[in-house]
Amino acid sequence: MWTRASDFDRMLGAMDLFRNRMNRLFSDFDRSYDKDFDWRPFEGGPLTNLSDTGGHLKLAVELPGILKEDITLRIQGNYVEISGEKKAELPKGYKAHRLERGTSSFTRSFTLPMEVDAERVEAVLKEGILTLSLPKAEAAKLKQITIK
Fold this sequence. Notes:
Elements: H1 5-32, E1 48-52, E2 56-62, E3 71-76, E4 79-86, E5 104-111, E6 122-126, E7 129-135
Antiparallel strand pairs: 1-2, 2-7, 3-4, 4-5, 6-7
């Protein structure tokens, strides 16, 4: 028998917590198997696209909710490493009723198909997408040779 509205709220909260834990359990289970039912390493990290525009490589990385101050970018030759941290903190003096957004971190590294000029790389973070413009190194650019 329910005596107060807070009892009902508490019951709904418990049911919501149970549902979230079951959803997480099933998604973790699905992620842990591949087609051959072998265990595979966790595939975390942001989704990326790499394209070639001729003189540049363009790398677009999905980083929703991550501030540019929380991203570290390293480039050397044809190696790119991106790491970052997503923070979800409560304002001081507030009590949490629901905490689904947690703190997480990632590191992704890429071996590019060619060396880039690290001194001229441009990085822009806009609407949760980090876009890197990676100019190809002179030695890596395609050259047309005139036949004599």
